[in-house]
Specification:
The protein has 192 residues and is an all-alpha fold. It has 2 domains: 6-108, no CATH class; 112-191, no CATH class. The protein has helices spanning 6-29, 41-60, 62-72, 99-108, 112-124, 149-165, 175-178, 188-191, and strands at residues 74-75, 87-88.
């Protein structure tokens, strides 16, 4: 779709918030899924998407519901600044999954986590920074870049290991622990 101007993204974000507030009102009137007295944004988004999926499934039936989610995709109405106009396509039968799980998947899907990882890589490793062109020479980018391309792969492997197995973000468990590949964090003292 290309880059969107910031003011357009902010307008979409405001429209998404307004749409969420309207849906919250409809959900409270229709008594859709007993709402907790205080809910965080993620729970609220999950409930709102589940409400939209329930309405869609009731209005079109299971076969059309399957077709719409697999071929047309689900347009996510609650825009994020970094992911405006998000649309989620399903590659497996959405009728085989509970609507609450579908809603959680739709809310969590996107490229933000991948973009964050790559931004961290560019920030942490000097050689991954976007190159600066030397003055007067077009097409050459070498400032702060690795001269030996093999170094790029070595640095990427170190960063991947650190991200997946070590406590970089201060979370409860590492990505490797969540997948069952490790029993816990690997600390600096364990590497020596």
């Amino acid at each position: 779709m290309g880059r969107l101007p910031t003011d357009y993204r902010l307008r979409l974000l405001a429209e998404g918030r307004q749409h969420l507030e309207t849906l919250r009102m409809y959900m409270s009137i229709g008594d859709f899924v007993s709402a907790p007295s205080v809910e965080d944004d993620l729970v609220s988004l999950n409930r709102a998407v589940q409400y939209l999926l329930t309405k869609l499934k009731k209005s079109v039936g299971p076969e059309e519901f399957r077709r719409v989610l697999m071929e047309d995709g689900f347009w996510y109405p609650f825009h994020f600044v970094n992911e405006p106009n998000k649309r989620v396509f399903f590659r497996t039968d959405p009728n085989a999954v509970d609507l609450a799980d579908l809603a959680r998947f739709i809310v969590k899907s996107g490229t933000h986590a991948v973009d964050t990882y790559h931004a961290r890589a560019r920030y942490k490793i000097m050689g991954f920074e976007r190159g600066l062109s030397p003055g007067g020479v077009r097409g050459l980018y070498y400032y702060k870049q690795y001269y030996d391309p093999a170094m790029v792969m070595k640095a990427a492997n170190i960063l991947r290991f650190a991200h997946n197995y070590m406590d970089l973000m201060g979370g409860k468990e590492s990505p490797a622990t969540k997948l069952g590949l490790a029993k816990g964090f690997i600390y600096d003292r364990d590497l020596v």
